[in-house]
C-alpha cells in the first residue's frame, strides 16, 4: 500500500479501502450521503457490505427527518465496531445533476466537516474517507480537499484519504 502525505494539506493519501482503515486507535470513516434518503450506489455499498448499521440508521434518520435535523450539512455518527464509527454526512442535494450543476453542495459539506471535526476531537479519533463528494456527487477534489484541510487537518485531526485499490 503506497502512502503519500500531501505536504500542503496534511492529508495522508493511501491506496486501499476506506472501510479497512489503517493505523491504531479510534477511527471515524466519513462519507457523503444525499438528502433524499437514497442509499444504493457508490461508496455506501462498500460500507453496507461490512456493516448494516450505517444504512439502517441513515434510513431511519431520513424517515424521521421532520423531527431530527436531517438535511444538508447534517452529520450522523454510527458506531460499527469497538473502535470504528461511520459518519454519514449530508452534502449532496438529490442524486442527479440538474440546472444547478452536480448534486454536491460544498457549503453543506463544509458544515458537515465542521461537525465531523468536533466528533473526531470528542472521540479522540482519526478520520478516514474516500475522495468524498467526488464520485456520484460530481464534486471536484480541488474544491473538497481545501475544506478537509481547513476543517480537519488544520485543527490537528489526522486524515487519511483512500484511493480504492481492488485487492484481487
From TrEMBL:
Top-level taxon of origin: Bacteria
CDD domains to which the protein is assigned, alphabetical: Macro_Poa1p-like
Signal peptide residue numbers: none
Biological process (GO), any one: peptidyl-glutamate ADP-deribosylation
InterPro entries referenced in this protein's UniProt entry, alphabetically: ADP-ribose_metab_enzymes (IPR050892), Macro_dom (IPR002589), Macro_dom-like (IPR043472)
Catalytic activity: an N-(ADP-alpha-D-ribosyl)-thymidine in DNA + H2O = a thymidine in DNA + ADP-D-ribose
Ranges of residues in domain Macro: 1-168
Protein name: Appr-1-p processing protein
Origin species: Actinospica durhamensis
Amino acid at each position: 500500500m503506497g502512502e503519500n502525505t500531501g505536504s500542503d494539506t496534511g492529508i495522508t493519501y493511501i491506496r486501499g479501502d476506506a472501510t479497512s482503515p489503517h493505523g491504531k486507535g479510534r477511527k471515524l470513516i466519513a462519507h457523503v450521503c444525499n438528502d433524499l434518503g437514497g442509499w444504493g450506489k457508490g461508496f455506501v455499498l462498500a460500507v453496507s457490505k461490512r456493516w448494516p448499521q450505517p444504512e439502517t440508521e441513515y434510513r431511519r434518520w431520513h424517515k424521521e427527518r421532520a423531527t431530527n435535523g436531517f438535511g444538508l450539512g447534517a452529520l450522523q455518527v454510527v458506531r460499527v465496531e469497538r473502535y470504528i464509527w461511520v459518519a454519514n454526512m449530508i452534502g449532496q442535494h438529490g442524486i442527479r445533476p440538474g440546472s444547478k450543476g452536480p448534486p454536491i453542495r460544498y457549503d453543506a459539506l463544509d458544515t458537515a466537516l465542521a461537525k465531523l471535526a468536533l466528533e473526531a476531537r470528542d472521540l479522540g479519533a482519526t478520520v478516514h474517507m474516500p475522495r468524498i463528494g467526488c464520485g456520484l456527487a460530481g464534486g471536484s477534489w480541488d474544491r473538497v480537499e481545501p475544506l478537509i484541510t481547513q476543517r480537519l487537518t488544520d485543527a490537528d485531526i489526522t486524515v487519511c484519504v483512500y484511493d480504492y485499490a481492488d485487492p484481487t
